[in-house]
Amino acid sequence: MYKLDSFMADLERRNPAEPEFIQAVREVIESIIDVVNDNPAYIHTKILERITEPDRIFSFKVEWEDDNGEIQINRGYRVQFNNALGPYKGGLRFHSSVSLGTLKFLGFEQTFKNSLTTLPMGGAKGGSDFNPKGKSENEILRFCRSYMTELQKYIGPQTDVPAGDMGVGTREIGYLYGQYKRINSENTGVITGKGRGWGGSLVRPEATGFGAMYFADEMVKANNDTLEGKRIAISGFGNVAWGAVMKASALGAKVVTISGPDGYVLDESGINTPEKWDYMLQLRASNNDVVKPFADRFKVQFVPKKKPWEVPVDMVFPCAIQNELNLEDAKTLLANGVKYVIETSNMGCTADSTIFFLEHKIPFGPGKAANAGGVAVSGLEMTQNAMMINWTAEEVDVKLHSIMKNIHDSCVTEGTGKDGYVNYVKGANIAGFKKVANAMLEQGY
Ligand code: GLU
User: Fold this and answer.
1) Does 3.40.50.720 match the CATH number of domain 207-370?
2) Ligand 1, residues 85, 105, 165: which to mutate, most atoms within 8 A of Cβ?
C-alpha cells in the first residue's frame, strides 16, 4: 500500500530544491493514489517510484557570441521523462526562470498530457536559461545554432521530437531545425512547430489556444451553459493567448484582458479584431516582453504591475507561466463571480488556489487537459511528416476539436463525483496515468 506522506517525503529527499517538480507530482499522486492502491499489480511493480523518475536527463553547455563579440555561456537541458507510449515529445523553453527542476515538472506533466491526447507520444521537456528578452535576431540565431549542436546528439524522429514552448516560436524552431539538418543531412519530422512551407502543420501556432477554448466549450456545455456572451480574462500575450482570443471571438465570447510582465491591458470593447490579434504577434516578435504598447496602440486601459485576476469576469484562462494565479487571486475571482477556470498554462495555478476552486465546486480544467491541443497538433504534424503529406487547415482543426472533446470526456468519466461535480484535475490525472502505467507494466522493466 502506498501512503501519500511517506511517498512524498521520499520523493523530496531524492529531488531536493525542486519545488515545482514536487508540486506537480503531489497533485498527480493525490488524485491517483486510490486507483493505485486498488490494483496490486501497480503496487508490487513500484509504479509510482518508476513513473516519477525521468528516464534520462541531459545537461550541456551552450556557448554563443553576442553582438558585441563577447562569448556568453548558458545551460541547456533535455529531460526525457517517459517513453512508454511513443517517442519522447515535448517543447523547449527559453526563459530566464528555467532550471532543471522546472523542466522535470514540465516533462512529468507532459507525459500525462500526451497520454490524454491518445496519440503515440511519450513525455519530455527541454530548454535553457537563455533569456530572449532584448536579444537581436542574430543573437537568437547564434544561440539556437549552438543549442542544437549539442541537442541533436540526443534526438531523432523516432526517439525524441522537441517543439516550442515559452521563448521558442516558429522563428526559433526554424533556426533549430536548420542546424539539425546541417549536421544530420536529413529532412524528417525531428521537431514540430515548423514553418508551414517546410513541413509544419497548419493550425499548429493556434492549436494550444484553440484547444483550450474547445475544452472550455465542452465544460460549459456539460453545465448546460454556453460560451456565447461570456466575459473572459486571459493572461499572457504570446502564442497561447493569441490562439485563445481568436477562438473565443469565433465562439461568441469576449476577452477583456491580456497581460505581460509589465502589467495588464483592460479592453472593455473586447480583443476581437484581426488588427488586435496581429498586433499581439508583432509585440511578441519584438522580444521586448511588454504588453503596454497594445494599450497605447488601441487607446485602452493599461494597469501597470498588476495581474488581470482583479477584473470581474465569468471565465479565466491563465495562459502565461506556472503558479501565476495564487490563493489570493482565486478568492478575488470567486468574490467577483467567476464561473469557470481553464488553466491553459502548465500548472498556472498554485496548489492552494486549485484546491480552493475545487472546494468551491468551480469547474476547473487543469493544464494537462486544457492545453493539450498544442502537443496534439504536434502529434498530427509528426503523422503528416511521416506520410509526406499536408492536411488542410480544416482537416487538422476537425481532428484537434475531436481530440479535445475526447480529453474532456475522459476527465468526466474518471472525475465525476457522487454529487455530480466533475473534478477535472482528478479525472485528467487518472485517465492520463492509467494509459502510461499499463503500458509500463506490459513492457516489463
Ligand atoms: N510546449 C507545448 C506544451 O506544453 C507543446 C509541446 C509540443 O508540441 O511538443 O505542451
Assistant:
1) yes
2) 165
